[in-house]
Write a structure and sequence with these properties.
The complex is a heterodimer of chains A (about 120) and B (about 120). With about 120 residues, chain A is mainly beta. Chain A is built from no helices and 11 strands. Chain B is built from no helices and 11 strands. In chain B, strands 2, 4, 5, 6, 9, 10 and 11 form a 7-stranded mixed sheet that branches. The chains are: A mainly beta (about 120), B mainly beta (about 120).
Chain lengths: ~120, ~120
């Protein structure tokens, strides 16, 4: 059974600070790692994906992957009140012939940015 | 480009009644997913289609749930009869598939309340 673990929070961060969101996964065969943002009453929206160990930066967001530790994180720099949402970590496997299985999601971390 | 389109957005039904949800994926996306999301949880995969073929329906409660994807484009998810525990958001998602189409995009969801 594949599992993705996240601290449900809420995680409260002052505006302008760095928000750090963490995720661990149980399936060592996982190859793709995603972060989705979900506002209350809305569907998940893709923020970033990462495939390789290390850091990947996109604007104020940085995803970090450590496959040896089975650990993924998302850093949000210069946090804004509009970043307040639930952040979902998701993983899946890729197939050698192309394609991938469905995403396995964590329960999400509720992030609150305090003005 | 239009995103994943779902209908209806909201549905309230009495238990034991049937309900159906419709999804139109992003144009050209061969892979279609149905997820269910309960309050405070991450989305859980119900079924995944590659074109017309259901390649992973291991999590679909087959006694009351059914799905189809005729002609490999639109899809319908049906519940009959509905139970109180089926109240959730039903999310349709799609991806290109293949070696470069791993990213999954979600529709706005169909919110089901069973009373």
């Amino acid at each position: 059974q594949k599992e993705v673990e996240q601290n449900s929070g809420p995680l409260s961060v002052p505006e302008g600070a760095i928000a750090s969101l963490n995720c661990t996964y149980s399936d060592r065969g996982s190859q793709s790692f995603f972060w989705y943002r979900q506002y209350s009453g809305k569907s998940p929206e893709l923020i970033m994906f990462i495939y390789s160990n290390g850091d990947k930066e996109d604007g104020r967001f940085t995803a970090q992957l450590n496959k040896a530790s089975q650990y993924v994180s998302l850093l949000i720099r210069d946090s804004q009140p509009s970043d307040s949402a639930t952040y979902l970590c998701a993983v899946n496997r890729l197939y050698s012939g192309g394609g991938a299985d469905g995403l396995t999601f964590g329960k999400g971390t509720h992030l609150i940015i305090q003005p | 480009e239009a995103g994943v389109v779902q209908s209806p957005r909201y549905k309230i039904i009495e238990k034991k009644q049937p309900v159906a949800f419709w999804c139109n994926p992003i144009s050209g996306h061969n892979t279609l997913y149905w997820y269910r999301q309960n309050l405070g949880q991450g989305p859980e995969l119900l079924i995944r289609y590659e074109n017309e073929e259901a390649v992973d329906d291991s999590q679909l409660p087959k006694d009351r749930f059914s799905a189809e994807r005729l002609k490999g484009v639109d899809s319908t998810l049906k519940i009959q009869p509905a139970e109180l525990g089926d109240s959730a958001v039903y999310l349709c998602a799609s991806s290109l598939g293949g070696t470069s189409g791993n990213t999954i995009y979600f529709g706005e969801g169909s919110w089901l309340t069973v009373v």
